[in-house]
Amino acid sequence: MWFNDKSVFVGKRFRTTADSKELLELHGLLAECFASRAEDRTGGADGHIRRVKQLAGILVRAMLENNYPDFTAEYADNIILASALHDLGKIAVSDAILAKKGELNVKESQLMQSHTLEGAKILEDISAALGGGTYTAVAAVIARGHHERWNGCGYPDRLKGEDIPLAARVTAIVDGFDCLAAGSPYSRKLELSEAFKAVREFSGIYYDPVLTDMFLSKSEQIAEIYKA
Ligand SMILES: [Fe+2]
Ligand SMILES: [Fe+2]
């Protein structure tokens, strides 16, 4: 299937557009399955990865519509694919910590937070092996930065404002929104209207205010994702 007679494999690159597209789709699906398995170990994460990708798609398309500065369609596509891998580093966190009900102690909390660095390391290694320039490089940035917060209270690097990479700021909003709208092991499920309200309230505190406005402007499209 991959190597039909029209495809020419050169080093690590496929030459025809059709084959590149197929390979990218396959990468995306494999990554989604892999990331879902890592996430599902916590229980209650059903569909989270798929919805994060859908929400990321809605937000990056809004950014393109609004001519977000220096933002390209290619970068938008990379963010959509890469957003699925934001919690890949949970592979390195023990089941006992992931499944623990109630508050984590300091040590457990540190281990949980290390999923950002673990995920980034895995993805940086993959990106380097592929020679760079693929969505895995963006995925490494997202894995490391998706818990950074606009006001600097996040982790692991306590970055603030636009020092947080754009792809990580996008993923922080869509990941946070889905945890509120669908519930997560760490937060109860809210009504959709409450989830929108909470994201609006966190704008400029946790989330990039410009991106949050663009996200909220697509509330009807977003609501479609949560219809049974
Ligand atoms: Fe995370
Ligand atoms: Fe997540």
Q: Whole-number radius of gyration?
A: 18 Å
* Secondary-structure element pattern, one letter each: EEHHHHHHHHHHH
Order of strands across the widest beta sheet?
1-2
Q: What coarse outline follows from CA principal-axis ratios?
A: globular
CATH architecture: Orthogonal Bundle
- Tally the beta strands: 2
Number of domains: 1
SS element count, helices:
11
Specify the CATH class. Answer: Mainly Alpha
Mean pLDDT: 87
Structural class: mainly alpha
CATH superfamily: Hypothetical protein af1432
Q: Tell me what portion of residues adopts beta-strand conformation.
A: under 5%
* Largest sheet report: 2 strands, antiparallel
CATH topology: Hypothetical protein af1432
The molecules bound to the chains, other than polymers, are: fe (ii) ion
Q: Whole-Å distance between the termini?
A: 35 Å
Q: Helix share of residues?
A: 55-70%
